[in-house]
Design a protein that fits this description.
The chain is of the alpha/beta class and about 270 residues long. The protein contains 10 helices and 10 strands. The chain has a 6-stranded mixed sheet with strand order 3-4-5-6-2-10, with helices on both faces. The model has no long low-confidence stretch (mean pLDDT about 95). This is Protein of uncharacterized function (DUF2877).
Length: about 270
């Protein structure tokens, strides 16, 4: 009989678990399961936040499952969860929404927060970017984002997929810009639903993980560290910690996302 694992929490926006899954990636902090339609179910280690497509597992449970999984591990669906690698992963009942709420007050990000040595994936330290004229590609990002907000169709495939990692630099920048657009109420559900309509080859352009983050971000749904950062803009006492937490994401993902928020904010304000 399979040993039951009881996750602590799930994102309300996570995909339905009753579909066919395969193991897409096993990492120290996350386990990615992929569906045929491109949906992703991410199993997070407790203490690392939660993504829009995520479930959170206890630290020890995540470790045991991670060590037992292989790329070809079969996954079967039951009424209550998933069977994989000798474990029955029960779908969590407790949930949280990762949709950015409407806030009446919108304090902006001060440029001074970018004066740090955090390295971006392609453009060097944040402090250098903030103190010099923007590179051509970042100016193009802003022009494209401005056009999207004006209702024009933009093929983002020309810009995405560039940079290292499961979520490449340019993808993280766009997620940050989308966060700024939603935070400052320049994006809404209708605009977000059509944001990538002209980007027909999105899945061929970048990683499956990144496509999921991008599509959720267009809908105003973000990982918990990004929401914490956005909420902290109204609380100066919390902002330094939230910014450090954001900058700790991935190798350069946090810095790239913060850069994107700053770039997007300069478009919408």
């Amino acid at each position: 009989m399979s040993e039951c694992l009881l996750p602590l929490l799930r994102s309300r926006q996570a995909p339905a678990f009753r579909q066919l899954w395969r193991v897409a990636g096993v990492y120290p902090r996350t386990i990615n399961l992929a569906a045929n339609d491109g949906a992703l179910l991410t199993l997070h280690r407790a203490g690392e936040g939660v993504s829009p497509m995520g479930w959170v597992l206890r630290h020890d449970d995540h470790q045991r499952l991670r060590l037992a999984l292989k790329r070809d591990t079969p996954i079967s669906v039951t009424e209550k969860g998933l069977n994989l690698a000798g474990y029955h992963l029960v779908a969590p009942q407790r949930e949280c929404s990762l949709r950015l709420p409407d806030n009446p007050a919108e304090p902006s990000l001060q440029t001074s927060l970018l004066y740090c040595n955090a390295e971006t994936g392609l453009y060097g330290p944040l402090s250098t970017i903030a103190s010099q004229p923007l590179p051509v590609e970042l100016r193009q990002f802003q022009r494209s984002f401005r056009a999207s907000l004006a209702g024009k169709m933009v093929n983002w495939c020309r810009m995405l997929g560039k940079g290292p990692g499961l979520t490449p630099t340019h993808d993280d920048i766009l997620v940050g810009m989308l966060l700024a657009g939603w935070y400052h109420r320049r994006l809404n559900a209708e605009c977000g639903a059509h944001f990538f309509d002209a980007s027909v080859d999105l899945r061929a352009t970048t990683t499956q993980v990144s496509v999921n983050y991008l599509r959720f971000a267009a809908q105003g749904v973000f990982s918990s560290p990004l929401l914490h950062f956005a909420h902290s803009l109204t609380s100066p006492a919390r902002l330094p910690f939230a910014t450090r937490q954001l900058l700790s994401l991935g190798h350069t993902s946090g810095a790239d996302t913060l850069l994107g928020f700053w770039l997007g904010q300069r478009v919408v304000l």
